[in-house]
Amino acid sequence: MEWKTLLSAKRERESQHKQRSSDLRSEFEKDYHRIIGSASFRRLQDKTQVFPLDKSDFIRTRLTHSLEVSSLGKSLGQNIGENILKYRRNSGFAPYMKEDISHILECAGLIHDIGNPPFGHFGEVAIREWFARNLPRLTFRGRAVTDLLNEQMKQDLLHFEGNAQALRLVTRLHYLVDEHGMNLTYALLNTIIKYPVASTEINEKSSDIKEKKMGYYLADEKIFRSVTEATGAGNNRHPLTYILEAADDLAYKTADIEDAFVKGFISYYTLERELAELERAIPESPFRPLEKLRQLYERGLGKGVSDPESYAVKNWIVSAQGFLINCATFGFTSNYDRIMDGTFRCDLFHGTYGEKLMDLLGDMAYRHVFSSMAIYKMEVSESPILNDLMDKLVHAVLYYDTGEPQDTIDKRVVSFISDNYKNAYKLQAEGKSEEEKLYLRLLLVTDYVCGMTDSYAKRLYQEMNGMF
Question: Do 48 and 193 sit in the same domain of this protein?
């Protein structure tokens, strides 16, 4: 892979007025303004990161998380770009490319979660499980739907994935000017494709990180191929994808601990105890996590802050992030050749001093937060919302656009779906077989559900069930 093609500024729809002396922005800076001005991006402010429908103004949403990933991604891009230039790792890497990769990563951080459904990762699980339960039961014109769909269509639904939905949303569903969505640059689109494999190629047991999930739907294979051919990445991960993933992992694993502390799931002393065990496991690490936490606690006492434990934990998060940024930078630069030839199979923290710290943070969040009774209760309350919406919407779209009569309620339910999504469906369905149209109508449901905020999903569920 070569940077000249990897940083492709090509778009699906090329502008007729590319050279405008009054606009000095690069193509990647233009992407940034397209994203932040979009309704899809704004809706992230009411989507769950960890705690759904939380009334606190401190707890992170998908929007604040995405802003943090954007910032960390840009910082990593600057560090790594400077390293490539300083040590002349690639003769084809020009100075302007450092700025380009920083802008691309800044934008990628903003949209990496833009396709996720309401209620966080539980929403993804709920949709997958709905299809696992119900797809075998659905019939269309007297035939089982599973007999009508090809294998990849079925696997797309059974392995529904927010990452694949993000690609679909920004290239198809954000219908602003035409069918090309936000019409973002190919370099940016390739960066957000974390898993460059189809649903039929998933291998969850693989040692290669790129095969763990799917990266695109069959419906969007054409744009996937266009993007990856233009950048030269093919079926490999784009090098910037590793950096985006590191920024995402770093952001949520540190933020989850901070949010958990604020919500009372983790105390200062819990973190202190866990870090003591970690420090014994990595005696050679230049970052002493327990020692740093205690230093910050003592500093808080010395400053006379009202809550030295909170002072220590929040400032420790900042210190840990700085250390982990350095680890990810080292992870990329030390594996540079393997990343560029498509043979690196791990994340950027693998084999660095930060690997065990990242593992601990993720494990702590799982044990103390995600498997807690409070989160379980939230998920139990969210489950009927998503299940009912899926029930009603799928039933309503089965015969939509087929010429066959629909009952009154199904017509009403279909009318709720945004015209953007219905327009995207009609454009993709043009000239397609009945089986392909049926598949696209099922995607129309997931498109609509994924476009919902947490509050909207809850309100629509209540309104559709007479809960006033």
Answer: yes
Number of independent structural domains in the chain: 3
Indicate if 309 and 363 belong to the same structural domain: yes
Residues 233 and 164 in one domain: yes
pTM reported for the whole predicted model: 0.94
In a domain, 249, yes or no: yes
Based on C-alpha coordinates, what's the Rg of the chain?
A: 23
Q: Which of 356, 373, 390 finishes a domain?
A: 373
Q: Residues 174, 73: one domain?
A: yes
- Give residue for tokens 């084999």: 351
Q: What string of pLDDT tens digits covers the 468 residues of the chain?
A: 999 999 999 998 876 655 556 777 889 999 999 999 999 999 999 888 766 555 556 678 899 999 999 999 999 999 999 999 998 888 889 999 999 999 999 999 999 999 999 998 899 999 999 999 999 999 999 999 999 999 999 999 999 999 999 999 999 987 665 667 799 999 999 999 999 999 999 999 999 999 999 999 999 999 999 999 999 999 999 999 999 999 999 999 999 999 999 989 999 999 999 999 998 888 888 999 999 999 999 999 999 999 999 999 999 999 999 999 999 999 999 999 999 999 999 999 999 999 999 999 999 999 999 888 988 888 899 999 999 999 999 999 999 999 999 999 999 999 999 998 999 999 999 999 999 999 999 999 999 999 999 999 999 999 999 886
Gap between the terminal Cα atoms of the chain:
57
CATH number at residue 334: 1.10.3410.10
Q: Is residue 175 part of a domain?
A: yes
One DSSP character per residue, 328-385 reads: HHHHHHHTHHHHHTT---S-TTTTSTTHHHHHHHHHHHIIIIITSHHHHHHHHHHHHH
Based on the domain organization, do 80 and 169 belong to the same domain?
A: yes
Q: Provide the strand spans (E) within 99-194.
A: 139-140, 143-144
* Cα separation values, 282 from 101, 191, 356, 362, 366, Å: 33, 33, 8, 17, 22
- Tell me: do 434 and 310 sit in the same domain: no
Tell me, yes or no, whether 162 and 265 share the same domain: no
Contact 448, 417 (CB under 8 A): yes
Residue 213: C-alpha distances to residues 169, 195, 244 (Å): 18, 6, 16
Same domain flag for 253 and 224: no
